[in-house]
Specification:
Layout: H1 2-5, H2 10-117, H3 121-135, H4 143-209, H5 213-236, H6 244-247, H7 251-262, H8 266-285, H9 295-318, H10 325-347, H11 353-372, H12 378-409, E1 415-417, H13 420-429, H14 435-439, E2 444-446, H15 451-470, H16 477-505, H17 511-526, H18 528-539, H19 553-581, H20 598-613, H21 619-641, H22 651-669, H23 686-697, H24 700-706, H25 719-727
Antiparallel strand pairs: 1-2
Helix pairs in contact: 2-3, 3-4, 3-7, 4-5, 4-7, 4-9, 4-11, 7-8, 8-10, 9-11, 10-12, 11-12, 12-15, 12-16, 15-16, 15-17, 16-18, 16-19, 17-19, 19-20, 19-21, 20-22, 22-23
Family: Belongs to the SEC15 family.
Domain Exocyst complex subunit EXOC6/Sec15 C-terminal: 380-728
Protein name: EXOC6 protein
């Protein structure tokens, strides 16, 4: 740098100095070469001497090498063979090592294929997991491993699809078998309840024997028979007890749940399962349109629902989280609302009490079965109280027809009994007691007609029928007693009362039948206390209990009796009118026939024979009927005289009319019905008598003089009436 950077002549000076330095080195080299030249010459001389020896040595070495090469050819060949074998051995060792790494992978993959072929999908998923996490990473560099890795997700999807298909088949299977599952569960629940009830009754026999010995002897024998039959049925069906697991294979659910859980899609599976089961629940809860026509329709409906929830309960207890108690409760509440709505609708179409009773029994078994699986069923028992009212209505309709048939078939004549056996048959059906009649010898007649014991027996049958519905409702004896009394009151006050009222109003029911109806209602009224005792014996509830209802039969039969009495009065008056209508007076006759008119004598004979039938009626009824008939006859005769169409009356006609009134007065004085005091009955004709006396004796001066006075001889003669007749 200094050479190029210094003064301008520096380069030249540097070159001059460099040349001087080179000359100095050349002189030193020359000196050194001169110093060593002799040694060099000597060395060259020795090398020339050695040259000949080196050539000899070279020839010898070449010959030796040739001979050695010839001798080592076989060794070389063997050595090369050894090398080749050792390379092969090394390759084999390497292959064995690699195969030892690959064989477990291939074995696991083969195992996976075998598991897939035998549908062991859960185990196949476990095998896949081992392949992915343990075996395949060791040999990931090989192409077949890459193929396996690519196939594993496809196999997983295939497993999911297959398991889902199995689940769908399972859902279809339980949909088809739900009715059979439910039927089996309901039958087992009913058998268990029957067995428990039989044991309970058997244990209560000794306690009840001291209270009602005679009645409980029958109960004891019945309970022993029931218990024996129950044990026999248990022994007979012991080997045939089936559960939901026996009827349905649940393994598809377990497999699918495990598979989806392993694949991390457990929530998806749960949602799908619950969604499908909700759809099936809606289908199960949808009733057939004709379900209300037969009990089999209801039984199948209940069996399907029970089967559905038995399956869900089983799934709840054997799986972890697939369904929860909250889910099943929600599903049950939804189903219960639908069931209640369906039963309300369809039960309203039932007009047969036997079908309603069968429905009630099915609902009780249905409720008891599901209650055994932990589902709340209080709303079902509340529904049964609604159906009970409907059951009572159907019973009332049925018994209304029975009562009508009994009344239609009755001959309305006292029951004849020819001997003691016939008498006992009657009193075994109806609690009749009459010491005076007991003293009479056979043959004799009981005062009531054949319909009375039949009606009484039908009322008892109604109580039994009503009791059948009250059984198994988990109600106390007091509540059952109250229900029986209320339903019996409805039967008496509404159904029987209506039938009696309709019977009384029928045109073919005559006076004799009406009299017998009054007698019948009197005996039925007296039998009401025996019906109360009958209910008390059934329920073991004393009538002295504060809250015990009373039967309203007394008012029912009193009302019917009053209606019959009124109808008697009406029909008597109608009959009198019929006789009056056939009266044929010659109002212009000059003198009377000297005897009463024929129509009036027929009327009096009719009244006399009719009032003889009234001897079995209560005294006041017969007296009222007789007084009413006489008053109506008197008014009819009076109206006949005052008829506006009648313009002229002769004194002969007045005399003839007077003879007829005299016969009426004689009839009244003959006491056709006992119990009248003095001439009370004759007063019914007092108006006619005073009016006719006024015309017969023509005592107008006395009438006018005494008019308005309490002591007047013609006090009951109305001036307008007298004037009208006077004009005629």
């Amino acid at each position: 740098r200094s050479v190029y950077d210094d003064q301008p002549n520096a380069h030249q000076k540097f070159m001059e100095k460099l040349d001087a330095c080179i000359r100095n080195h050349d002189r030193e080299i020359e000196k050194m070469c001169n110093f060593h030249h002799q040694g060099f010459v000597d060395a060259i001389t020795e090398l020339l001497k050695v040259r000949a020896d080196a050539e000899k040595l070279k020839v010898q070495v070449t010959d030796t090498n040739r001979r050695l090469q010839d001798a080592g050819k076989e060794v070389i060949a063997q050595t090369e063979e050894i090398i080749r074998c050792r390379v092969q051995q090394r390759n084999i060792t390497t292959v064995v090592e690699k195969l030892q790494l690959c064989l477990p992978v291939l074995e696991m993959y083969s195992k996976l294929k075998e598991q897939m072929s035998v549908k062991r999908y859960y185990s196949a998923l476990k095998t896949m997991e081992q392949l992915e996490n343990l075996y395949l990473p060791r040999v990931s560099q090989y192409r077949f491993c890459q193929i396996m890795m690519e196939n594993l997700p496809k196999l997983r999807e295939e497993i999911k699809e297959i398991s889902m298909s199995d689940l769908k088949d399972f859902l279809e299977s339980i949909r088809k078998h739900s009715d059979r599952i439910g039927e089996t569960a309901m039958r087992q629940a009913q058998q268990q309840k029957t067995f428990s009830t039989a044991l309970q009754k058997q244990n209560n026999v000794n306690y009840g024997r001291n209270m009602h010995l005679g009645r409980n002897r029958i109960l004891e024998s019945k309970n022993e028979i029931t218990l024996k039959r129950t044990f026999e049925d248990e022994d007979e069906h012991e080997e045939e007890v089936l559960t939901a697991q026996d009827l349905v294979d649940f393994s598809p659910v377990y497999r699918c749940l495990h598979i989806y859980s392993v694949l991390g899609d457990g929530e998806i599976f749960e949602n799908y399962y619950r969604k499908q089961r909700r759809k099936q629940a809606r289908l199960v809860l949808q009733p057939q349109s004709s379900m209300h026509e037969t009990v089999e329709g209801y039984r199948r409906y209940f069996s399907q629902i029970v089967g559905f929830f038995v399956v869900e309960d089983h799934i709840l207890h054997v799986t972890q989280g697939l369904v929860t108690r909250t889910y099943t409760d929600e599903l049950w509440n939804m189903a219960l609302s639908k069931i209640i709505a369906v039963l309300r609708t369809h039960s309203s179409y039932c007009s047969d009490p036997d079908l309603v009773l069968e429905l009630k029994n099915l609902i009780v078994v249905f409720a008891d079965t599901l209650q055994g699986y932990g589902f709340p069923v209080n709303r079902l028992f509340d529904l049964l109280f609604e159906i009970r009212d409907q059951y009572n209505e159907t019973l009332l309709k049925k018994w209304s027809g029975l009562f009508r048939d009994i009344f239609e078939a009755d001959n309305y004549s006292p029951i004849p009994v020819a001997n003691e056996e016939e008498y006992r048959i009657v009193i075994s059906k109806f609690p009749f007691q009459d010491p005076e009649l007991d003293k009479q010898s056979f043959p004799k007649k009981l005062p009531m007609s054949q319909s009375v014991p039949q009606i009484y027996m039908q009322v008892k049958e109604f109580i039994y029928a009503s009791l059948k519905f009250s059984e198994s409702l988990h109600r106390s004896s007091t509540e059952i007693d109250d229900m029986l009394r209320k339903s019996t009151n409805l039967l008496l006050t509404r159904t029987l009362s209506s039938c009696l009222q309709n019977l009384i109003k029928k045109p073919h029911i005559g006076l004799t039948e009406l009299v017998q109806i009054i007698i019948n209602t009197t005996h039925l009224e007296q039998a009401c206390k025996y019906l109360e005792d009958f209910i008390s014996n059934i329920t073991n509830i004393s009538q002295l209990t504060v809250h015990t209802a009373r039967l309203y039969g007394l008012s029912t039969f009193k009302d019917a009796r009053h209606a019959a009495e009124g109808e008697i009065y009406t029909k008597l008056n109608q009959k009198i009118d019929e006789f009056i209508q056939i009266a044929d007076y010659d109002w212009t006759m000059s003198e009377s026939d000297g005897r009463a008119s024929g129509y009036l004598m027929d009327l009096i004979n009719f009244l006399r024979s009719t009032f003889q039938v009234f001897t079995h009626l209560p005294g006041k009824v017969a007296q009222t009927a007789c007084m009413s008939a006489c008053q109506h006859l008197s008014m009819s005769l009076m109206q006949m005289l005052l008829d506006s169409e009648l313009k002229q009356i002769s004194m002969g006609a007045i005399q003839q009319f007077n003879l007829d009134v005299i016969q009426c007065e004689l009839f009244a004085s003959s006491e056709p019905v006992p119990g009248f005091q003095g001439d009370t009955l004759q007063l019914a004709f007092i108006d006619l008598r005073q009016l006719l006396d006024l015309f017969m004796v023509w005592d107008w001066s006395t009438y006018l003089a005494d008019y308005g006075q309490a002591t007047s001889k013609y006090l009951r003669v109305n001036p307008s009436t007298a004037l009208t007749l006077l004009e005629k």
